[in-house]
Amino acid sequence: MRVGIGYDVHRLVAGRLLVLGGVEVPYHLGLLGHSDADVLVHAVMDALLGAAGCGDIGKLFPDTDQKYRGISSLVLLSRVAGYLGERLWTVSNVDAVVIAQAPKISPYIEQMRVNMAREMGVAPEQVSVKATTTEGLGFAGRGEGIAAQAVACIRRIK
């Protein structure tokens, strides 16, 4: 078994959709990025790749490559799962936290779990998503951005 950690942060801006865990969360701001800027899925992908010793998402999906502009991060997560499978790794479990002062995301967490589990080829019970605020402190507390952290365990395919 191997363990990896992931972290991602994106700035909140007007004129973009807010996508977290593949769910469009209603909010007046969205995350700025080359893809859909889904910080939750990005942190999960980095945790998975780190566990396998395969670098990070920037290595696999560089933001200089136009084919990834606006792409759904769930598509990229599916590709990461396939990439790990080719190297004989499978996801054991993922635990992630979204760090944001607003909006409230608890109503969307179950769908986020289902979405990410589907793309990784695991059961939703193997994916945990939590949310927290920073009590008004830092960039997340001021509503300037959203961050996510993830830990992933992978194991060899038998």
UniProtKB/TrEMBL annotation:
A divalent metal cation binds at D8, H10, H42. It holds the Pfam family YgbB. Keywords: Isoprene biosynthesis, Lyase, Metal-binding. Its EC number is 4.6.1.12. It catalyses: 4-CDP-2-C-methyl-D-erythritol 2-phosphate = 2-C-methyl-D-erythritol 2,4-cyclic diphosphate + CMP. CDD domains: MECDP_synthase. Binds 1 divalent metal cation per subunit. GO terms for biological process: isopentenyl diphosphate biosynthetic process, methylerythritol 4-phosphate pathway; terpenoid biosynthetic process. It is an enzyme of class 4 (lyase). It comes from the Bacteria. The keyword Lyase applies. The record marks H34, T133 as: Transition state stabilizer. SUPFAM superfamilies: IpsF-like (SSF69765). 4-CDP-2-C-methyl-D-erythritol 2-phosphate binds at residues 8-10, 34-35, 56-58, 61-65, 132-135, 139, 142. NCBIfam families: ispF (TIGR00151). This is 2-C-methyl-D-erythritol 2,4-cyclodiphosphate synthase.
